[in-house]
Amino acid sequence: MKAETAKQIKEWVLITLGTLVLAAGVYFFKFPNNFSTGGVSGISVILGHYFPGITPGDFVMVINVALLIVGFAVFGKNFGVRTCYCSLLMSGFIWVMERAVPLSQPMTSQPLVELIFAVGLPAVGSAILFNLDASSGGTDIVAMVLRKYTSLDIGKALMCSDCIITLMACVAFGMETGLMSVLGLVIKSLLVDMVLENISVHKCFHIITANPKPIEEFITKTLHRGATELHGEGAYTHADRTVLLTVMNRREAIMLRKYVKQVDPGAFLLIMNTGEIIGKGFRGTN
To answer: How far apart, in whole angstroms, are the C-alpha atoms of residue 47 and residue 36?
Structure first.
């Protein structure tokens, strides 16, 4: 129970951190440069231009709350708690930043550098959230509603909406800012997947050994991981061998590789990257 509680606390801390990183990228780099790369923040940048009496952060708050109400109206109690938390927290972070650190212009005179941070920080934050089965809400809620009531290809529909929002930046802020926003949208679509893949990657081991017992004990008692034992036979020598199958994170993989070479220098290791693990100790279980 304590381990489960600690895991839950760790996940909520990471969700909060991911939301903070996302909000910082939006407020400090996207808003001052008028970069509009789709989503609620992109719409808010454009609306803030046409309604100067209301800040983009206020528009983020209003739109997110409206979409959360729609989400609860459509899905009822089944609507995601983590999505609600992240959506409200992101809006709150931006609201506080606007009042604690007001910005009237970009922090640097290098728009390309600002664009990299405007896209990179939200990409990292979004990847952290996606890896923990959370999201910042916004257009994700629209996608959930469309998925329920239509047969649209949601990915393409959201990409089209992001493209339209981004192109609107050309009209609102001129071609230079508009083209920077288009470039940002392209980078964002590539960067989220890349960051997410690197966050969730694990190492899959196939260990072919003649001395399996100490390795199994190290895996189960020191690393607190599971392993599957298979029995094999060398094709050339026809000697009996044990094949251990296990999955580790990066830190554990380094420890296991080092230990195996110590206790059985003749062991044969196959180490592969795997992007998604479903099972006890990983994802897909309570």
So the answer is: 11
Last residue of a domain, one of 199, 221, 243: 199
Same domain, 177 and 235: no
Q: Provide CB contacts within 8 A for 77, sequence distance 6+.
A: none
18: left (phi over 0), alpha (psi -120 to 50) or beta: alpha
Q: Per-residue pLDDT tens for 87-121?
A: 899 999 999 999 999 988 898 889 899 999 998 89
pLDDT at 286: 46
Sign of CA dihedral 88, 93, 96, 102: negative
Inside any domain, residue 177:
yes
Domain boundary among 170, 199, 228: 199
Looking at the DSSP bridge assignments, the partners of residue 96 are none
Residue 66: give the domain boundaries.
Answer: 2-199
How many degrees, rounded to 5, is the angle at CA 210 between CA 260 and CA 264? 30
Closest CA to 58 of 85, 21, 31: 31
Q: 208-263: per-residue pLDDT in tens?
A: 999 999 999 999 999 988 899 999 888 888 888 999 999 988 888 989 999 999 99
Q: What is the pLDDT at residue 78?
A: 63
Residues 18 and 89 both lie in one domain? yes
Check the CA dihedral 8-192-22-168 and report its sign.
Answer: negative
